[in-house]
Amino acid sequence: MSHTVRKPVPARPELIRPRVPETDWDDWRWHMRRRITNVEKARQWINLSADEEEAIAGVAGKYRWSVTPYYASLMDPDDPGCPVRLQAVPALGELAEFPGAEVDPVGDTYYRKTNRVVHKYPDRVIMLITEACPVYCRHCTRKFHTTDVDGTYFRDDEGGSFDEDLRYIADHPEIRDVLLTGGDPLSYQDGKLEEIVAGLRAIPSVEIIRIGSRFPVLLPQRITEQLCSMLSRYHPVWLNTHFNHPKEITPEAAAAVDRLLRHGIPVGNQTVLLRGINDDVPTMRTLMTELLRIRVRPYYLYHCDNVTGVSHFMTTVEKGWEIMDGLQGHITGFGVPQYVLTTKIGKIPIAQPSFTPTPDGLLLRNYRGQEMVVGGDAQPISEPGTR
Description:
With 387 residues, the protein is an alpha/beta fold. The chain has helices spanning 22-25, 28-33, 39-42, 50-59, 69-72, 83-88, 163-170, 190-201, 215-218, 225-232, 251-262, 281-293, 317-327, and strands at residues 117-121, 124-128, 177-181, 208-212, 237-241, 267-273, 297-303, 338-343, 346-349, 355-358, 361-365, 370-374, 385-386. It has 13 helices and 13 strands.
């Protein structure tokens, strides 16, 4: 598959957006070394608003902040409401207080069994193998894990031993599925990542290894032939990524997905419903259909968690139902994600019911608002129509 590679071009000449040699732009390590971490670097890519500059100062020493040059190149330099910019540049909402906000509303710390292993479900665990990310997403549900505040809940021990974590998994043969997450597991070099994956594959009871990574979105150059070839030696390996807006689906991202798929690694997507970014039907329809175009299967639509420092992104559940109604029946069935809320007792589907119990059976409603009653024998007992 051939893809046209887009190069960053200044939107306005007064911006100092750098022109980068192709060999550097295609090297993920170059991007990692040159991540944007302060106001001066950010000004090379975007015209910061006064609120953004105040927020950057406000999160210093509290929440980590960095943006890859690649992801910065997707930002509208003049629009603080750009959906890419809102996900990557600190905002004053991170410093506000919201009722009910929690540091860990999904219960990772409660289900923690070792330094890295979280065992919430009977047959599967997550391993928080690193705190590092190429971009520290402002809406991260594990903001506590990547925070700069002293006393964080998990540590990667500077890439230290994973023996305790692997031993726990080996000692619990009911665990058949392990998800590597963090931080972003692909922040490791291939060699270190292979040590972890090989350690899991050596455990007979582990059937599936999954990787949760936003690198296909934030820095697709990381998805190299060498990485994909290494992962393919440990199949079955799955990868879930995290596209939130159609603007993120670039030729580079499509090429990264294609490399994964050609090496037998299925790619799914977990979108978060975010106020001001994707909380409308046209944006979400476009996102899901574009994901299918690049052969990424929509998996979850997460209701944004009420996380300390993240709550300003929350919408209402009713908004989520409105969006799900705008997807179901209007796009390919397997392009419709499952709408879920993550809680301390697990992921709970919260899609609006499409039926109402009646004395005659179930009153069913389709995507057009048409209704029909289906009786106990699953046969229609009235003609379909709009009520």
